[in-house]
Amino acid sequence: MAELLTGAQMRAIERAAIASGSVTGLDLMERAGAAVVEAIFEEWPDLASGDHTASILCGPGNNGGDGFVIARHLHDRGWTVTAHLYGKAEKLPTDARSNHDLWVAQGPCVPLTDRSAGSVKNMPDLVVDAIFGTGLTRPVEGDAEFVLGNLETVRTDFGVRCVSVDVPSGICSDSGKWLGCCPRVDLTVSFHSEKLAHRLEDADTHSDKVVVKDIGLPHAEQSDERAGYVWMVEPPAARALAKPTQGQKYSQGHALILSGGPGRTGAARLTARGALRVGAGLVTLGVPSKAQAEVASHITAIMQVPIANAEALTELLWDTRLNALCLGPGLGIGDQARGLVEAALPLYRATVLDADALSMFHKAPADLFELCHDRTVLTPHGGEFARLFPDLAAKLAAEPTEGPAYSKVDATRTAAQRAGCTVLFKGAATVMASADGRCSVHSAQYERAAPWLATAGSGDVLAGVITGLLARDMGPMQACEIATWLHTECALAFGPALVAEDIPEQMPDVFRALGV
Ligand SMILES: NC(=O)C1=CN([C@@H]2O[C@H](COP(=O)(O)OP(=O)(O)OC[C@H]3O[C@@H](n4cnc5c(N)ncnc54)[C@H](OP(=O)(O)O)[C@@H]3O)[C@@H](O)[C@H]2O)[C@@H](O)CC1
Ligand SMILES: [K+]
Question: What's the ipTM?
């Protein structure tokens, strides 16, 4: 999987490469600037020939230094370029200063003002935002805020192409939060690896597209170098999902999904269908007696057993072939439901807790954390997360005043440590973390945006897909990573007008496309 870096991690990689003597900071800046120009021409081939005009907005740090390299390279291609500097040339860091000086020997550099992106009568073909990158430490103000806030108008009303260097300026590279302004550009060109900001929060509303360019820095190979990294969920390998040719149904596990009472069984049935479609050998619904007729009229391959109360559940789980559990969808939040959760967790099965099984602990989340273990997965959406971890949710919702700002990754990692289990925090960017610090992000953004997944029952299916993969003996993090990818992929494969029932039914096509 590819890593998603923080600004500090990126700086550490850069420092290590420079210290090794293999490259200088100036080399890296030259490569970065050249890479942005290359990406611009790849994105808009019509700009690759002919003479065009560009405004390059350069900030007070090395992001601005990249901007001066870009100015020089475009000028060398015959463009008419103006650099606009936010800050004082004397205060630029050494490499940025060198590139500033190279540029002013070739073309104009004027102070950045509110008109820097262009005047109504004099719009350039291209605006490059190189004001702030990974070094943004506080909210953007003044002329920089004004210009950046106006980029959307410059794009949409005047058709000017807008490109950000590394991250759209004003976006905190570690959290994706905006600090003082909310730029919108066509393209962001980043270096070496994506930064967390390219995936967290509403990343795809700030930039329509992100391109990562290699600048010759080494990627971490040793596991100790990779510790602390956040990983981006990628398509699963077919072999992870294939069933052994000699296997029988019991070799693929037996998932038990607990259902709510009459009139509330739909959620658990969706969960069960998700578990079955993803390949659990057997799936059984545990159903209160009064709801059995209702459930029986809806199921075929899925089985059901009566579960009247916690004692009945404990007794049933003497059968150790029932190796993965899911509690929560439609379960209710009363004492009876809570008794089931309290009975299930000490039996140390792989257990997904979703929906009601999370909300029922809102008054005393610590009671839940006491019971959780390393085979437990909590799958909160934003509201459920706030019920279980109100302090973390408040910190996450607070408007940031400095960078790096508190991120969804920070919140999920702390939540996983506190609960002592895997936490999957849902959203367009779903963040999952285990108590030992492993963390990954699944991004349903940009070309994988799946707005139709915001539909009743969609989360129930996701819980079922995770449970099915746990039944198939995957560890909690792998099950979460693969399930989130499959869930989104099913929605994309189905397309518009998706309802929750469609998600599991799309699984065969998605498996086939993966080569399973
Ligand atoms: N790492 C790598 O491998 C490579 C990095 N490269 C490039 O370097 C970029 C990172 O450079 P960087 O560290 O100099 O940070 P950057 O964002 O340019 O600005 C920092 C300056 O802004 C200032 N400042 C901050 N907030 C402010 C505010 N609100 N309003 C006003 N000022 C504010 C801040 O001031 P300070 O906080 O120190 O007071 C400081 O002076 C990276 O994104 C990439 O483009 C490439 O060249 C290739 C290899
Ligand atoms: K930028």
Answer: 0.98
